[in-house]
Write a structure and sequence with these properties.
Strand content of chain B: under 5%
Radius of gyration of chain A: 22 Å
Number of domains of chain B: 1
Number of helices of chain A: 14
Structural class of chain B: mainly alpha
Number of strands of chain A: 2
Mean pLDDT of chain B: 89
Strand content of chain A: under 5%
Structural class of chain A: mainly alpha
CATH architecture of chain A: Orthogonal Bundle
Radius of gyration of chain B: 18 Å
Low-confidence stretches of chain A: 1-10
Number of domains of chain A: 1
Mean pLDDT of chain A: 83
Distance between the termini of chain B: 19 Å
Helix content of chain B: 55-70%
Distance between the termini of chain A: 29 Å
Shape of chain A: globular
Largest sheet of chain A: 2 strands, antiparallel
Order of helices and strands of chain A: HHHHHHEEHHHHHHHH
Shape of chain B: globular
Oligomer: heterodimer
Helix content of chain A: 55-70%
Chain lengths: 335, 206
Amino acid sequence: MNNAPGKENTPLAQAPTLSVGPSPHMVSRDLSTRRMMADVIIALLPVIVVSFYIFRWFAIYHLLLAVITCVSVEALSMRLLRRPPTIQDGSAVVTGLIFALSLPGTAPWYVNLIGAAAGIFLGKVVFGGLGQNIFNPAMVGRAFVMIAFPAAMGASGYVSQSTGVDILTSATPLTALKQMGQGTSLMHLLMGDTNGSLGETSALACLVGGFYLCARGTASWRIPAGVLLAVTIISSAAYLIHPTPHWTPLHHLSAGALLLGAFFIATDPVTSPVTRKGRWTFGIGIGTLVMLIRYLSGYPEGVMFSVLLMNSAAPLVDRLTVPLPLGGSPGKRKP
Amino acid sequence: MTDDATPLERFLRGIIPENPVYRQLLGLCPTLAVTNNMKAAMTMSGAVLFVLLGANLVVSLIRGLLKPHLRILVFTLTIATFVTIADRFLAAFMYPMSKELGPYVPLIIVNCIIICRCEVCASRQSPAVAIADASGQSLGFALALASIATVREILGSGTWWGIRILPAGWDNWVIMVLPAGAFLTMGLLLGIANWLGTIRSETKGY
């Protein structure tokens, strides 16, 4: 609030000026960026534990490498830009965790290193740091390595718990569906004993963490609700037109990165809309794009591209869904 | 821009202080499109050098005859003549390169560096000044293309001028060869150029 003294006689100058800073917004003293990021890390714990269980050393190594890279790139860039250090707010740690969880376990070390660095630098620092970025940094990093190293980004193997071998190579559930029309049992999708990116295999773990985030109010429940609603409607319609017993709408909901994306990636407060209607629109847009990509494109999964596309639309969505202030719209006064 | 700059000053100005790509942000279409390897970038620079020299010289020679409302038309016709010569020359003597550059050689006609130099310099100056200006600007353009192509070719293919310089185990960054890599490299190099410019003006004290 900026109520300049000495200008009291002009009526316009008396009105206080409220400047709105970039999000994440501080609603109360308890809700600081640091606490929000701590919440996200707590919510990610089930996902991380499942990834440790399924991918073993791959998961530990990728998570450590990505977090260390993200934090050091952010610290280094802030030093070079002569800005105050920002690593203590924890957002770089969260970016690193989510980026690592979106990588396949077999990705080589340099893919992780380059992607994490590109995510923080190209996705966040060049825009001016936390709150200024248009795109989710973790997804920018993943898109970068996905296009740079398409061969290395295919999930090719995991440490199976149900068989005695060390590493089981198999297609991810969605790739198997896309290329061979094979289904995967719902139980496997729920528990996560399948192949895929580190954090996406277990639907249950994503749900547990996601509900915690929404219950704490750190993430808006409207965004994941919108995503899941759109996916349910579109996949049910497709299922009714052309029933496929091995791949029901429930499979669509629990396979791939959908739940991880809906609860942890799309809900990034910086790159998603701030109005209620806007959040619904944002979620429904992501869900629709995911289903379009799954059904109609060459990619088996499209959460990353959908989130990035809707990120670019978020400012527009915000502008179109400005809520009506109490007492009517100030813009519709007669001149 | 003062009109009494000597030809040498005009030549030097085009290279760094008024670099067409990094300072004036002109001619970005070929800058982004043909810089995924050094050979293509240098062929493009050569073609631009030829067209810019020719167009500047001819426009400077006929500057007394130009009518203000028809000047852009005359510039474009002059440029198109030289572009056609360059395009046919490439097709006759460097066929694979002509194929690789595709439509970007004919598109030199609408390259705004050349129209800009005709308008700003050649239509008002003597042929000697116009030639110095054209060489300086072309050299600046070539330097900018070389800098972007160097980054993109080394990271995207592990080679420079077709010669392997990174070890065979290098995993090519496919994104650097694709258009996205052009925008990223261009943006980052532009940022570095501005950053260095800021530091220089800070240390000079103005």
